[in-house]
Amino acid sequence: MDGRLAQWDRAFQAEVRSFLAEKLTPDIRARAARQTGVAAERELGIWWHRTLFERGWIAPAWPVEHGGTGWNAMQRHIFEEECASANAPQLFLGGLQLCGPVIMRFGAPEQKAFFLPKILSGEHYWCQGFSEPGSGSDLASLTTRAVQDGENYVVTGSKIWTTHAHNANWIFMLVRTSTEGRQQAGISFLLSPMDAPGIEVRPIISMSGEHEVNQVFFDGLRVPVANRVGEENQGWAIAKYLLEFERGGSYAAVARALLRDTLIAAQTSDPVDGTRLWDDQSFRRRYAEMDIEITAQSWTEKRVISSLSAGENVGDMMASILKVRGSEVQQAAGELAMRALGELAIPDQRRALSPGSDAPPIGPDFALRHTARFLNDRARSIYGGSNEIQRNIIARSVAGG
Ligand SMILES: Cc1cc2nc3c(=O)[nH]c(=O)nc-3n(C[C@H](O)[C@H](O)[C@H](O)COP(=O)(O)OP(=O)(O)OC[C@H]3O[C@@H](n4cnc5c(N)ncnc54)[C@H](O)[C@@H]3O)c2cc1C
């Protein structure tokens, strides 16, 4: 693979940059810079979703017939990198990245016609109801029960760690429709509006102080049988298909943005004694190592993209390698940022970070979000299938290959 951008890719990059420069006003960038979790605050995220939708750029990974952009894999990668570099608001991708592809592949024609346009336009905001208090890595052991009663399933049970359930207006979920045979053979995939009677969302506040995840309770929730995707008891195959998408992503660009802030912090003189961390050789060495790790991750991502562009099958193992290394590189970049911040990492910035707040940040702007982000990023090696589980996949692939 030739890593230099071809001329037409450079023209595309320039087009994306000019769009981002026009739409991302200083005010929008300042709001987006306060994001510490996986996605922007709800209003900002919805605004950015609609802006991209109006430009026709909301679903780069979707087939053109369903509203995709028709970009090749390298153009998609460029778009993601440019958005990350410009600090664009990050979208919550429950609909676009997870539920949408499932409906395209397994949905009935009426489901495609109803749901896909609403995912594209942003009218539907989806959350993912897979994990349960006793079923995370061992997802097939899930016990949330759905019993058919006429034209409906009656759902009882609970989901946990449901990201943005408090923002979402729809949930896709795995439920147990049979206890016969293998656990995997008794699971179905259902879709429900979040305002249906029988759903309760309770917040879980994470160690970064944010409300990002929830526990969701179902008590006699009625889901029309027409909202089941695929056949009854065939939900496991759908879940496996969906989880492949969850491991994708552009990790290097996010880590690179963190490294930029780290450089600013390290080159800023201490107001008391005038020293700069940048003058410490051991820090500069760690910075250089981090730079190299991020560059290696970026090349690995580009290599995968290049294979995909050439129509090659990347495979389960590669998706797992990207997830393990990508999350580790992001976490390491976060640790270095914390080191560069020093005591500026200590103040509780939650008031200044909350959407709409006019509380001034403590210290310079670059110090505002890193501690919350660092704490939040600890979860990157857990969600989307923990890194230990990814290593098992890699080990099995190596042993099998
Ligand atoms: C911030 C955050 C957001 C999330 N968002 C969502 C969401 O929106 N929707 C959703 O459905 N879920 C979500 N999850 C849940 C996530 O997918 C699970 O937490 C994850 O799959 C791990 O499951 P668990 O928490 O039950 O841990 P467990 O499965 O109990 O694992 C505990 C530890 O044991 C290790 N372990 C388990 N099995 C093995 C094994 N076979 N080999 C080696 N090590 C093993 C794990 O790696 C982990 O370190 C989220 C989680 C977090 C932290």
TrEMBL record:
One of its GO terms (cellular component) is plasma membrane. Residues 233-398 form the Acyl-CoA dehydrogenase/oxidase C-terminal domain. It holds the Pfam family Acyl-CoA_dh_N. Residues 10-123 form the Acyl-CoA dehydrogenase/oxidase N-terminal domain. InterPro entries: Acyl-CoA_Oxase/DH_mid-dom, Acyl-CoA_Oxase/DH_mid-dom_sf, AcylCo_DH-like_C, AcylCo_DH/oxidase_C, AcylCoA_DH/ox_N, AcylCoA_DH/ox_N_sf, AcylCoA_DH/oxidase_NM_dom_sf, Mycobact_Acyl-CoA_DH. Signal peptide: none annotated. Its cofactor is FAD. Keywords: FAD, Flavoprotein, Oxidoreductase. It comes from the Bacteria. Residues 127-212 form the Acyl-CoA oxidase/dehydrogenase middle domain. This is Acyl-CoA dehydrogenase.
